[in-house]
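>> received
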Amino acid sequence: MAKKNRIPHKFLPWIDVRKKFNLSHAHVQMARELGLNPKRFSSYANCKEQPWKLPLPQYIEALYEKSFGKNLPDNVLSIEQMAAHHLAKRKAKKAAKAALEAGRDESKISEESSNDPI
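>> returned
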């Protein structure tokens, strides 16, 4: 049985926003880089009641171009790919920490054995 990929909780609101407002992966990545709050997207996208507002995708593109001076991010990743990179990074960090702890334990044991009088 295949193991289902787990997505960390910090990425779930972005997946919901992408589906609800029909945004592309690039738009979601631009919004994340801009630091927009996914919970406030309904107020950003209220262009039917407030016609002076831009539609949400154009609003994100305009903010991104104003802030970064380019139309799109250099490397566009989906939220699922970002989550996979995040989990791989955490796993590598945990493995490195375990290796460091194992090295400390070995050095501690070797120091104790060298200090024992025979």
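>> The CA atoms of residues 110 and 116 lie 10 Å apart.
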